[in-house]
Write a structure and sequence with these properties.
With 414 residues, this protein is mainly beta. The protein has 2 helices and 28 strands.
């Protein structure tokens, strides 16, 4: 799960014991997305764990249990919430009544990345935890086997850390939790999806060749188990499940990727050069909200202007700035719509030429690496990149003419 472009990126679950009531505890749970560019999209996180004993959740604010089991009665009361050994908790939706909310709750399970919207990269909810034993004197234990319910994420064991300190009443009062445990969760693209989800095509003003996405980048059309929507046809009626991501309905292509990124070297000026990026959604079943594109190129430190995307450099390697994040403008193109007429977003950006780092020769005008929403895209091998015309071939006919003329002149003199 290690990412060289985001070495500290992880999702952290924090378990804060806020108050001990004897037979029950007030617990506040937090989910922090510390990843620079990978976010959690709809349908969102589904937090789950395994209780060490016969603990149960008495009440909950800011979230709810997906399934409520047949709860046993404690002191003649029926438990209102989750009594399962392995609960599954989901976030409430925006617009939840205030008496059911807590701070940072009710975002539908969506977590933004730190780069795009750090204020919405955290989620929280609160619950009252007890035990279902008859005497009610046993304290609730710390769960194990945490999962986020997100493909590709793996969580470690809880680790006790220093109790969390809080600032309240507009900074005039400081409190702290009774005890705190952290759980770290990392992401692996290999575990997240069985095949890549995007590919990159390339072109340039100085070459008529368009390097298309490699064949079978994300799958092979006609292969066993591969289904797609043929051009000109509409997808079948999609069955949307509650709290589940829709199954992809991808347009039939030679690469079979839901997302295609096209990089075009558009213009060459004396001191600058211009690139156009187009992102096309070929999935009929999904909109991509808060999408982002991470690009690695040695000349990115000289980005001068970006016209219709946001751009932020990723300074993860100190002064060696060769990677940046492109993402949409709010209320304009932060949503990449389903496949169709409006199923693409594009922008142009201007870069200053750095003779020590940049040249059009040998394909240097093209990126080294591109990822979409944190998943690396498939690119053509570098020897297929559009190249400048070979100047040696242009000079060769003139050289041959000079040699032939010299031989002819020598013959006449003899």
């Amino acid at each position: 799960g290690y990412d060289v472009l985001d070495p500290s990126g992880k999702v952290t679950i924090r378990w804060d014991v806020m108050q001990d009531n004897g037979a029950t505890q007030d617990v506040r749970l937090w989910i922090f997305n510390y990843q620079l560019y990978r976010h959690v999209d709809y349908p969102g996180w589904k937090l789950s764990w395994t209780w060490p004993g016969d603990e149960v959740i008495w009440n909950m604010w800011g979230a709810e249990a997906m399934e409520q089991g047949n709860c046993s009665a404690i002191k003649g009361q029926q438990l209102p919430h989750c009594c399962e050994k392995e609960p599954v908790i989901i976030d409430l939706l925006p617009g939840t009544p205030y008496n059911k909310q807590v701070a940072n709750c009710c975002k539908g399970g969506v977590l933004s990345s730190l780069t795009q919207d750090p204020d919405n990269s955290v989620a929280a909810f609160q619950m009252n935890v007890g035990v279902s034993s008859s005497n009610g004197s046993m304290a609730a234990g710390i769960p194990a086997n945490f999962t986020l319910g997100l493909p590709g994420y793996t969580c470690g064991p809880p680790v006790e850390v220093a109790p969390t300190k809080f600032t309240e009443d507009h900074g005039r009062r400081r409190t702290q939790a009774l005890a705190t445990w952290n759980v770290s969760c990392s992401y692996s693209q290999f575990l997240g999806s069985p095949a890549p989800m995007c590919c990159v095509s390339l072109s340039a003003f100085y070459n008529d060749t368009i390097v298309r996405c490699p064949t079978c980048s994300c799958g092979c059309e006609g292969a066993v188990g591969q289904t797609c929507v043929k051009p000109g046809e509409l997808p079948a009626v999609l069955q949307l499940l509650h709290n589940e991501a829709p199954q992809p309905a991808v347009k039939c292509t030679r690469h079979m990727c839901p997302i295609k990124v096209h990089w075009h070297v558009k213009t060459n000026y004396k001191e600058y050069w211009r690139v156009k990026i187009t992102i096309t959604n070929l999935n009929f079943a999904q909109n991509y909200s808060q999408w982002n594109l991470v690009v690695s190129h040695p000349n990115l430190k000289s980005v001068t202007q970006v016209f219709s995307f946001n751009y932020k450099p990723l300074d993860v390697h100190g002064n060696f700035n060769d990677t940046g994040v492109f993402y949409g403008l709010q209320h304009y193109n932060e949503m990449l719509l389903q496949s169709g007429i409006n199923g693409s977003v594009q922008s142009e950006f201007l870069l200053h030429k750095d003779p020590q780092l940049f040249t059009f020769k040998e394909g240097w005008a093209f990126p080294r690496r591109i990822s979409f929403n944190g998943d690396e895209c498939v690119m053509a091998p570098p020897d297929e990149y559009p190249r400048l015309p070979n100047s040696g071939q242009v000079k060769a006919p003139a050289s041959c003419c000079i040699i032939l003329f010299s031989c002819l002149l020598l013959t006449l003199l003899i």
